[in-house]
Amino acid sequence: MSNTHLPVQPGRPRLLMCPPDHFGIEYEINPWMNIRQGCDPALARRQWQALHDAVISLGAEVQLLEPAPGLPDLVFTANAGLVFEGRFFPSRFRFGVRQGETPIFETWASHAGFEVVPLPKGMYFEGAGDALFCGESLFAGYRIRSDVLGHQWVGERIGAPVLPVELVDPRFYHLDTCFCPIAPDAAIYYPGAFDDYGRMVIRDQVPRLIEVSAEEAASFSCNTVVVGRTVVLNAGAPKLATALGAMGFATRPLDFSEFIKSGGSAKCLTLRLDGEEAAGWKQAANDDPRGHLSPT
Ligand code: ARG
């Protein structure tokens, strides 16, 4: 499949996705992965397609990255890097098995017209998997994959305040597995993935928070994609869906069982090309003249 560049319409969310042609469980770098259990490639393809079709039907544009053999996690485009306005900060992966993805994402980004700004050697940074805007602050998950140095380096270049939050549970090894901004002043999070300080930072900085239960967090329900006022989330999270409804969001539950076997779900399979910050404040400002979503 070749790269598909769809026409750009300002204001519409733009997402990068990579078809799961070579997706599989070929190594174990997080507690969800089990080589012997493997996954069902045909089912993974249907689940990926359902997400792709859902975000398009909700009004997003999708660009496709060409799949590459030997890189089974390339589907998780959230880990490509961080997009900020015209710049792309490519990931520096902690594990060697994922490091081959970086040149592919860099080539894609420069062809797509981004200025590629590589991090210095010796820093770890796993892109939008660990760095998420909520309001104007960049929440930065560290310790298991990214490190604080990488986040600080990126924060200095984009001029955003960085709020480092330590990830303490190996099952929630990327920030996007346990924290998801849904509006400039609102986020979903699983408190058990953070230490006291991280929980305090999140509670202090995000006025409207939805706490996800341990059970629903374990079905990857924090890993959602927000398009307009609709949240695409894992089908195994009825309590979260109800809480989102009470906050004025529609929900679109889908099944991601095969990607959860790799430690990923809806959000991990997408990268916001109009910037992670757009997922929160810019888009919500377009939706609502007051610039924020009010509870219903
Ligand atoms: N198997 C992949 C890894 O462990 C899953 C990555 C999921 N991506 C994410 N943004 N959480 O690296």
Explain this structure:
The protein is α/β, with parallel strands linked by helices. The chain has one domain: L-arginine/glycine Amidinotransferase, Chain A. Helix content is 28%, strand content 21%. The chain has 9 helices and 15 strands. The strands form 5 sheets. Strands 2-1-15 form a 3-stranded mixed beta sheet. The N terminus and C terminus are likely disordered. It binds arginine (ARG). Arginine binds next to loops.
What's the topology here?
Elements: E1 14-17, H1 41-57, E2 61-64, E3 81-84, E4 87-90, H2 96-99, H3 101-111, E5 115-116, E6 131-134, E7 137-142, H4 148-158, E8 162-166, E9 179-183, E10 186-189, H5 196-205, E11 208-211, H6 214-217, E12 225-227, E13 230-234, H7 238-246, E14 250-254, H8 257-260, E15 271-272, H9 276-287
Parallel strand pairs: 1-2, 4-5, 7-8, 10-11, 13-14
Antiparallel strand pairs: 1-15, 3-4, 6-7, 9-10, 12-13
The structure holds arginine.
List keywords for this structure.
15 strands; three-stranded mixed beta sheet; disordered N terminus; 296 residues; L-arginine/glycine Amidinotransferase, Chain A
